[in-house]
Amino acid sequence: MAAKEEEVAAELEAVQAVYGDDCVVLDSYPPHLHLHINPRTADVTSQQFVEAVISIRAGSKYPNESPQINLIESKGLDEERQKFLVTYIRDKGSELYSCLMLVALCEEAVERLSLMNHPDGDCPLCLYSLVSEDDQNKNLPFMKLMSCFHCFHCECISRWWNWLQTEKKTNPSGSSSSTMHPARDNDFKEDVEENMGNCPVCRKVFHTKDFEHVLDLVGSLPSQLSSDANEVEESKNLVYSDSENIRRQRFEATLKLQQEIRGLIEPRRDVRISPGMYLPQPTTTPADVETKESNEQQQRDLPSASEMHASSSQRRNTSEHRNPGLWRKKRMHNPRKPVKQWIRKENMSAE
Amino acid sequence: MTSSSAPSRKALSKIATNRLQKELVEWQVNPPAGFKHKVTDNLQRWVIEVNGAPGTLYANETYQLQVDFPEHYPMEAPQVIFLPPAPLHPHIYSNGHICLDILYDSWSPAMTVSSICISILSMLSSSTAKQRPADNDRYVKNCRNGRSPKETRWWFHDDKV
């Protein structure tokens, strides 16, 4: 009997040696452990779509009785795959009946999970598939939330996020106009929510840092962004877009740095200054005044411009006279202002 | 203030249309148990028949849900009300308004018509008494100007029923 116990203890040691911190031993005899399993591709975080924690609990008759296998938690696995994973490991357990099988079961679990390492069916926001097997070209970029591994098209989740921000800006104290029950006070929540969000699927809290890089991606691909996202009243968009963009730029810089050093860092505020980052942003003054002003400005500027680019400035000139309203919209092209790439989105929508 | 009969005068956005068409196809293949939706030309308003689940207070009863989709669905929640006569339920007002958090504060764009229907049926099924909410008269009076339930500031007090 003691000999058997020793063998089992040695086996448990082997599991610990192989899995290190991923293995938590709750009981040494009879062995009961929790194993955190990742697919084999997990070294590349962007390639990881699933993970799981399984419990392996042997009885006193082990190995002459297969251990109990249970799924403690999982990310990215739909119910079907969860069930399949557990059933598969249990079956292996019965197969290996009477052998010392802990290491083998752990290996099987990792193996099986690696085969399941693909994102879950459809984007929960647009309901179109994330990965279409028939036509790779049709695939839109998608991303996953690190907190829960739920996947979304980048475009869809950014649209949703921007929507929430706009809502918050336009309606900071809630959405309703009148009360019938006393409403809860949201003020406290607002502060906390600034850098947090809830997954649309499971409501698990995530940090906005998780997908700031995606917001950038969409911003730099205006053609992919359907005009719809810009239908939110343009003026509102403009009012807050400058500060929003500065924030985005900062995140971009941080992310780049993180990629370089391959790890998470606290944003360093003193370095990584992007061009124009701290320039005072132009405020949106009443449109009429500024339009006049810029028209005059433009007319003063025109002669010199037309010397250099006669044809193009002439065209601009005529269209300006024909349609002063158009010119107002194009205010953002004012050559005095630094033209930044990340303004392109607003320009596109204004035109 | 919008009226409940025409809550969304604005047409559906392209994204909303795509998403609803997708939901419609999915509904036709796999409708939630106990619900029937007669497909019409109007994608923006669905009228759905609900059958009370067997073994509950509402067994063998049929009600009609009216679902109106806003321009920016699914970012915004749809407006969901019972057409008269609304079932007698502690969270359903006699004007058809439903006090259910997912239709208002707790809406998430990952929810679908189908998941809303399942929530409403489950709300009906767990009811232990056929009665109106305590503040029914006051609320309904307040809504006489045709206010949409989405403009109410709901206070969700009880998740048992």
Which helices and strands occur, and which strands form pairs?
The complex is a heterodimer of chains A (351) and B (161).
Chain A: H1 2-19, E1 23-27, E2 32-37, E3 51-57, E4 68-75, H2 79-95, H3 102-115, E5 142-144, E6 151-153, H4 154-170, E7 178-179, H5 187-193, E8 196-198, E9 205-207, H6 209-220, H7 234-261, H8 287-308, H9 310-322, H10 324-329, H11 344-350
Antiparallel strand pairs in A: 1-2, 2-3, 3-4, 5-6, 8-9
Helix pairs in contact in A: 2-3, 6-7, 8-9
Chain B: H1 14-29, E1 35-37, E2 45-51, E3 62-68, E4 79-83, H2 113-125, H3 136-142, E5 152-153
Antiparallel strand pairs in B: 1-2, 2-3, 3-4
Most extensive interface: A-B, 27 and 28 residues
Given as residue ranges, the uncertain stretches of chain B (5+ residues, pLDDT < 50) are 1-8
The assigned structural class of chain A equals: alpha+beta
**Count of helices of chain A?**
11
Number of helices of chain B: 3
Q: How does the major sheet of chain B shape up?
A: 4 strands, antiparallel
**Beta-strand proportion of chain A:** 5-15%
How much of the sequence of chain B is in beta strands?
A: 5-15%
Based on DSSP secondary structure assignment, what is the total number of beta strands of chain B?
Answer: 5
Order of helices and strands of chain B: HEEEEHHE
Largest sheet descriptor of chain A = 4 strands, antiparallel
Looking across the biggest beta sheet of chain B, what order are the strands in? 1-2-3-4
Low-confidence stretches of chain A: 174-192, 219-239, 285-335, 337-341, 343-351
Biased composition (Basic and acidic residues) (chain A): 289-299
Region (Disordered) (chain A): 272-351
Domain RING-type (chain A): 123-203
Protein name (chain A): E3 ubiquitin-protein ligase
